[in-house]
Amino acid sequence: MTVTFRPLLTSLGLSAALLSSASVQALEVDKAIEYRQSALRVMAFQTGPLGDMVQGDIDYDAEDFALRANNLASLAHLPWEAFIEGSLQNDDHGIATEAMAVIADNRDDFISRQETLVDETDTLAQMANDGAEFDELRRQMGTVVDTCRGCHDNYRDN
Amino acid sequence: MTVTFRPLLTSLGLSAALLSSASVQALEVDKAIEYRQSALRVMAFQTGPLGDMVQGDIDYDAEDFALRANNLASLAHLPWEAFIEGSLQNDDHGIATEAMAVIADNRDDFISRQETLVDETDTLAQMANDGAEFDELRRQMGTVVDTCRGCHDNYRDN
Lengths: 158, 158
Fold this sequence. Notes:
2 copies of one chain form a homodimer. With 158 residues, chain A is mainly α. The first copy, chain A, is built from 5 helices and no strands.
């Protein structure tokens, strides 16, 4: 109810700061979870054809590979700003999330893994842009997938 | 049920082409709608702070403005590949979508508007990277928002 009333209260000249921090927190967590799940879904969609190509499930197409690799690289830094305090599993928000509570105790490692993903996807995109051989791209794609998996194994509950 | 069985059938050496085209189509439309809605949600999230800054709802921060503008520019070309045949309103998929059926009759205009969005968000990002004045950025942000709105007015049912 507090969330529903916020626009009305704001229009009456009451700033967010005057509302209880709990209500502001609830609204932000809601949006943050929806956003990061969307961003990760978009990354997965763009990763799909790359995985299919390196596994031989679809024909390798250098142009499409480069396009997807560049998309993935530009997406790789997006989701992380939304893993805000109070938005993990076991936090009091009532929203389904696979983001494990243990992230809160391992922020440095979580950030380090994000930076690795950004670096490895950048490398993949640069290699594709530079016309690298398929075997090299396949090897680098393996590194990218391992990076995804490493974080999922530690911090994603599914 | 067909969708559930597909991985099994595929692992048995039956290619997707051997399955009914209806089942493949259903799977693709499902994924396409989920993907494009996610991509547009991510764009909206990144646009939020830009809009808040040009409207004076939050303080202008040149660094954050440039970051968001670059994010938006790299996202602007993503959603459109997923407006595939059979995925619009009134098509037989049973999924909630705001993508109006009239898009099918106006593909050239729809594509032209996508290209305009890509161009205008690229311009905004470039201006921010080049250190443009806030008034110039605000004006270009108005053009970007008008581009969003133009497409929504014609092709989004909400």
